[in-house]
Automatic annotation (TrEMBL):
One of its GO terms (biological process) is very long-chain fatty acid biosynthetic process. It comes from the Eukaryota. Belongs to the very long-chain fatty acids dehydratase HACD family. This is Very-long-chain (3R)-3-hydroxyacyl-CoA dehydratase. It holds the Pfam family PTPLA. The chain crosses the membrane at residues 21-46, 112-131, 151-171, 183-203. It is found in: Endoplasmic reticulum membrane; Membrane. Its EC number is 4.2.1.134. It is a multi-pass membrane protein. InterPro entries: Tyr_Pase-like_PTPLA. The keyword Amino-acid biosynthesis does not apply.
Length: 227
């Protein structure tokens, strides 16, 4: 194959990958909008525990779709480290399957922590996926408002999300021992211990990304004059 044909093939592959990522991110943002809508309006209309009973399955399905991100990372469609992606997705899957589905009668599921969890997850993901989609489709120049939201709201949303996840697990320890066994209770306790270093790694990573993103915004607003 000639160099020109190889280049054309590589460009075509890149365009397909970018098209797939834009589609995936836009679809994911739309799906998480459903979670946000359900959480806000149903918490007002029906409250707990009916909110959990009505929404936990759709939230579980939508969160499960995040496994696609592991695939994207594993095959090189995105540059995210596989292990980091797996750990982030796994922590949420633990909650939606290990708590929502395995322990449906856990007091955590009727607690306000379920509401703060759903709000934190959905708002975070809507902004994140929209940012990614536009970043790709605009050749690295997403809307300023998305960049600002992406790299500022995490100061609130990440701690509230992690605190809600830990709260859900803590509130489920008794039910875990009763329904599954003592080993499951201790497994969940170990998982709680893993949250601290995991959160530190993720949060400091976001701080570094924020510094780069806001610096780029500043340079775009005030371009250097040519000598």
């Amino acid at each position: 194959m000639s160099t020109e044909k190889k280049s054309q093939s590589a460009n075509l592959k890149q365009k397909r990958s970018q098209g797939w990522l834009v589609l995936y991110n836009q679809a994911s943002a739309s799906l998480w909008s459903i979670v946000l809508f359900n959480t806000v309006f149903l918490s007002i209309l029906v409250g707990q525990p009916d909110l959990f009973k009505t929404t936990n399955r759709i939230t579980t399905i939508i969160q499960t779709l995040a496994l696609v991100e592991v695939y994207n990372s594993a095959v090189g469609i995105v540059r995210s480290p596989v292990l980091t992606t797996v750990s982030q997705v796994a922590s949420r899957l633990l909650v939606v399957y290990g708590i929502f589905q395995v322990l449906p009668n856990s007091p955590a599921n009727s607690h306000w922590a379920y509401i703060t969890l759903s709000l934190s997850w959905s708002i975070t993901e809507i902004i994140r996926y929209l940012y990614y989609a536009q970043n790709i489709s605009s050749n690295g120049q997403p809307a300023k408002i998305l960049t600002i939201l992406r790299y500022n709201l995490f100061f609130v949303l990440y701690p509230s999300g992690v605190a809600s996840e830990i709260g859900m697990i803590v509130l489920s320890l008794g039910e875990a021992e009763k329904v599954v066994g003592a080993w499951y209770k201790w497994f969940l306790i170990v998982i709680i211990g893993v949250y601290a270093p995991g959160f530190y790694t993720l949060f400091t990573h976001m701080l570094k990304q924020r510094k780069k993103a806001l610096k780029a915004l500043k340079e775009a607003d005030h371009p250097k004059k040519a000598d």
